[in-house]
Amino acid sequence: MTTSWEKEAVVFDEIYEGGGLVAKIPLLGPFIQRGIIERQNRALAFLQACGARTILDLGCGVGRLAVAAAQQGVTVYGYDISAPAIAQAQERAQKAGVSDRCHFVTADLLRVDFPQADAWFDLGCLHYLPDPAPVVQKLSHVPHLFSCLPMKGHWLSPVHYLYRTVLRGQKYLEFSETEIRHLLAAYPHLQIEASGMVYYVTTAVAG
């Protein structure tokens, strides 16, 4: 798992800029690019809505969300299994002048003792774990969450399976609404919205 994500966590970030192999595929590339940009925009909107001042960023990659949140005055703890991605995240935070609010750690999420925080964010991490339940259990002390989880039965499901599981040898989970509520049972007041090929899952926020 670690070896396969060492470089891929960095390469994945190229999609934000319209680069990488996926971006070169007609129709599919732009579709995926729009999707991951939407994830970050929604995450930042939720950050404002829940009023979090300290957040946990799971699978933070090169720190795009973390730095954007820190620029809003939020303290961020970012975790990724890829050391090269964490190195780029630290450099990004330093260039943005927010390194004092960004704490990046190279780590397997199953081995992390998560600190106190107001919210945790998953923009594309949990569904790559063999079993995300133990990680979610370790996060249950955090009152708010934002998660983006692949929709079971989406038309791109066979493509994901072929690329991730068959070619890359990586676990790739998809979810129904029922399975999401079971996984996140510690959070009884969830809002689940289907959009494109994913579910956006958040805790309810007053107002």
Topology diagram in text:
Elements: H1 2-13, H2 20-23, H3 28-50, E1 54-58, H4 64-70, E2 75-80, H5 83-96, E3 102-106, E4 119-122, H6 133-138, E5 144-150, H7 157-167, H8 177-183, E6 190-195, E7 198-203
Helix pairs in contact: 1-5, 3-4, 4-5
Stretches with pLDDT under 50, minimum 5 residues: none
Reading the helices and strands in chain order gives HHHEHEHEEHEHHEE
Largest β sheet strand count, sense and barrel closure: 7 strands, mixed
Shape: globular
| Rg, Å, rounded | 16 Å
Give a written overview of the molecule:
The model has no long low-confidence stretch (mean pLDDT 85). Helices cover 41% and strands 19% of the residues. The chain is α/β, with parallel strands linked by helices and 207 residues long. It is built from 8 helices and 7 strands. The protein has helices at 2-13, 20-23, 28-50, 64-70, 83-96, 133-138, 157-167, 177-183; strands at residues 54-58, 75-80, 102-106, 119-122, 144-150, 190-195, 198-203. A hairpin with a 2-residue loop joins strand 6 (190-195) and strand 7 (198-203). It has a single domain (2-203), classed as 3-Layer(aba) Sandwich (Rossmann fold). The chain starts with a helix and ends with a strand. A 7-stranded mixed β-sheet has the order 3-2-1-4-5-7-6, with helices on both faces.
Q: Short summary of the structure?
A:
The protein is 41% helix and 19% strand. The protein has 207 residues and is of the alpha/beta class.
Which characteristics define this entry?
8 helices; Rossmann fold; 7 strands; 207 residues; alpha/beta
